[in-house]
Design goal:
The structure is a single chain. The two termini are 25 Å apart. This protein has one domain: 3-Layer(aba) Sandwich (Aminopeptidase). The chain contains five helices and nine strands. The strands form three sheets. Strands 1-4-5-6 form a four-stranded antiparallel beta sheet, sandwiched between helices. It has 167 residues and is of the alpha+beta class. It is globular.
């Protein structure tokens, strides 16, 4: 059964394996934790990322963000991030949702199904009338997954499509 689980300490080992295997930048999703040790992940990274949901003492530009992992039974297959609201820069930048699917599970519908699940959550969190997403023009599978979930193209720049999903 497919489900989204909020980042948590109980799944730390699986989350660490997923996060540290992601490249530092893949298809526009950045990952500063590539290759960190398990101990550093548990002691520093995980508590910091969990705090991003309800930030304390962060800069004014910081936007609360919640991390979710997509599970198929007991197998972690993807990561989704929801930014709770947008700054002006995020409206034409990263948008509300960022995600990745583990390489060996791509092309099997996980992006589309995971996007449907994360959009349900985003509709409850995001105050804006629409959910903003951005995808590289070269990332056709992600573009299709997002569009299959009701997105429309609201604009573009040289390298990205700016997509919107109505709440």
């Amino acid at each position: 059964m497919l489900e989204l689980r909020k980042m948590n300490m109980e799944d730390a080992k699986h989350q660490w394996e997923y996060v540290t295997a992601l490249p530092a930048d893949e298809n526009g999703l950045t990952n500063p934790y590539e290759g960190v040790s398990y101990q550093e992940y548990v002691d520093k990274v995980l508590p910091e990322l969990m705090m991003h949901e309800k930030p304390v003492n962060m800069p004014d530009w910081f936007v609360p963000e919640t991390y979710y992992y997509l599970w198929d039974g007991e197998v972690l297959v993807g990561e989704f991030r929801i930014r709770h609201y947008l700054t002006e820069a995020l409206k034409t930048g990263a948008g509300h949702i960022g995600y990745s699917i583990k390489r060996e599970y791509r092309g099997k519908g996980y992006g589309t199904k995971g996007m449907a699940l994360v959009l349900e959550l985003a509709r409850q969190i995001v105050p804006e009338e629409e959910i903003y997403l951005r995808v590289l023009k070269s990332n056709t599978p992600s573009f299709k997954a997002i569009c299959k979930n009701g997105a429309y193209v609201a604009g573009e720049d040289e390298s990205h499509f700016l997509l919107r999903v109505r709440k």
